[in-house]
Amino acid sequence: MENLLVMSYIFTFFLFIGSFLNVLGFRMLDGTSVWNPRHSHCPSCGTQLTWRDLIPVLSWLFLRGKCRNCHQPISWLYPLGELMTAVLLTFVVWHGGWTLETFVNLVLFVIVITGTITDLRAKLIPNALTFPGMAILLVLRLFVHPEPLWDYLLGFVVGGGVLTLLALIPNGMGGGDVKLFALLGLGLGWKLVLLALFFSCVWGTVVGLPLKVSGRLKARQAIPFGPFILLGTLTSWAYGERLWDLYRNLYL
To answer: Where do the Prepilin type IV endopeptidase peptidase domain residues begin and end (predicted)?
Structure first.
């Protein structure tokens, strides 16, 4: 019961982190500063939002997805980003425990979640996210590395290199995906980043194939790959080592 109460507090905290990541992602796309203007505002009429409008998920529900002032629709990506952040980061803490490695993983998933938000919004994972993210993870990995440091450096090369080859294929990966996987290599190491790529493709097929069969997704129609990268990374991080050991025992 005590653990459940602690996790509920953590979940609530991460809802507000998700609200911040929404602002971070959208302002990166707009090319504006995260800190200026300091106050959030309605993207339609520019009205400054009050605390009543900034309660994660609940404000959007109470306002029925519309601005209090101009009544223009507020994107569903706002509550989705908040919920996605809270659920995934709470799972990371629950699964990883209270360790320095969990902190590194939280930073990693914060970056990937932000990239997912921008990809859903504009089909773009900006350099303003991936390049600083690489620098932050590199510094963290210098001090926190359960595996040898070279494992993560090789992961950077493997993650970016494999995706660079795939990007050369027509209708292959985009440049933002390549940089994000290089970043993931720093966070996961070379084995898990390969599994993250594999699971990302699996999740993309699981979702994309029914859409194609039903006709909702047209031939060669591009869809954001960021959400599948997020799911693939989570699958690899949480269960990849077990699957890798199982594969090694069965076939190697």
So the answer is: 106-209
Return d(Cα 216, Cα 121) in angstroms, integer. 19
The CB-based long-range contact list for 202-209 (8 Å cut-off, 24+ gap) reads 202/232, 203/227, 203/228, 203/231, 203/232, 203/235, 204/228
| Buried-exposed string 218-232: b where 16+ CB fall within 10 A, e elsewhere | eeeeeebbbbbbbbb
Is 3 a residue whose pLDDT tops 70?
A: yes
pTM, to two decimals: 0.89
Q: Chain-wide mean pLDDT for the chain?
A: 86
Question: Is residue 1 scored above 60 in pLDDT?
Answer: no
Segment 162-166 mean pLDDT: 74
User: Which residues does residue 66 pair with via DSSP β-bridges, in sequence order?
Assistant: 73
CB 216 within 8 A of CB 249: no
